[in-house]
TrEMBL record:
Gene Ontology molecular-function annotations: ATP binding; ATP hydrolysis activity; transmembrane transporter activity
Gene coding for it: ftsE
Subcellular localization(s) per the UniProt record: Cell membrane
Membrane topology: Peripheral membrane protein
Name of one Pfam family that matches: ABC_tran
SMART domains noted in UniProt: AAA
Higher taxonomy: Bacteria, Bacillati, Bacillota, Clostridia, Neomoorellales
UniProt keyword Cell membrane present: yes
Protein name, as recorded: Cell division ATP-binding protein FtsE
Length: 230
């Protein structure tokens, strides 16, 4: 059974913008998937539906075989524990150190204080930021800030890591390092879904490519390319 299953998913924003139009797709455990398409194609909407920030207008989404539409309000946090998320603009809290930013993801799910330190240290080690734990976001480079955001997203060992344009604010060399890191996380078993406009990255990595256009799924290639130079 696939980890993520979309069945005829349509999302209409009121009054009449069809952001996703009858999408059916399956993503297996351990896959690395690029979500591509022009601005407004529906990539962010796809991601929002995944972690239930939005609900579909029609259709069904199953994660781990469970319909996420039917989750009760108190069950939503359990879904979100299984999904780590990374954004283009990092979204670190500026008043907090790197350590505290990462620890926060554990505090909100009430991990016992004793466990927090070793788990944060391990996550920072995985992203190569052990020596930046006591620094504040503004003291870090963009690439380091994104690493900190990735540490926060994986500290809870989610099954799925979703990245919405994670290299959008980074230069090409730093972007490649971030991609290497996401690939490593993927090799260690986490399913990675990344929305991007970075056609050069997509073309060089030869992963699965799902292309959206005006809310429709127009292409799904196993070892795909971006398709055009955006
Ligand atoms: N909350 C909302 N209310 C109304 N319309 C929305 C909302 N969110 C997105 N849309 C519309 O839905 C469509 C898809 O938007 P979405 O953000 O999913 O595209 P995208 O592929 O992520 O674009 P980009 O690459 O620019 O981030 C767009 O036409 C957008 O204007």
């Amino acid at each position: 059974m696939s980890l993520i299953q979309f069945y005829n998913v349509t999302k209409v924003y009121q009054p009449h913008i069809t952001a996703l139009d009858d999408i059916s797709v399956k993503i297996d455990k351990g896959e690395f998937v690029f979500l591509v398409g022009p601005s407004g194609a529906g990539k962010t909407t796809f991601i929002r539906l995944l972690f239930r920030e939005e609900v579909p207008t029609r259709g069904q989404i199953l994660i781990g075989g469970r319909s996420i539409a039917r989750l009760k309000r108190r069950e939503v946090p359990f879904l979100r524990r299984n999904i780590g998320i990374v954004f283009q603009d990092f979204r670190l809290l500026p008043e907090w150190t790197v350590f505290e930013n990462v620890a926060f993801a554990l505090r909100v799910i009430e991990v016992s204080p004793r466990e927090i330190k070793p788990r944060v240290e391990k996550a920072l080690e995985r992203v190569g930021l052990s020596n930046r734990a006591r620094m504040f976001p503004h003291q870090l480079s963009g690439g380091e800030q994104q690493r900190a955001a990735i540490a926060r997203a994986i500290v809870n060992n989610p099954r799925i890591l979703v990245a919405d344009e994670p290299t959008g604010n980074l230069d090409p060399a730093t972007s490649r390092e971030i991609m290497k890191l996401l690939e490593e996380i993927n090799y260690q078993g986490t399913t990675v879904i990344m929305a991007t406009h970075a056609w050069d990255i997509v073309n060089s990595m030869r992963k699965r490519v799902i292309a959206l256009q005006q809310g429709r799924l127009v292409r799904d290639d196993r070892e795909g390319a971006y398709g055009y130079e955006a």
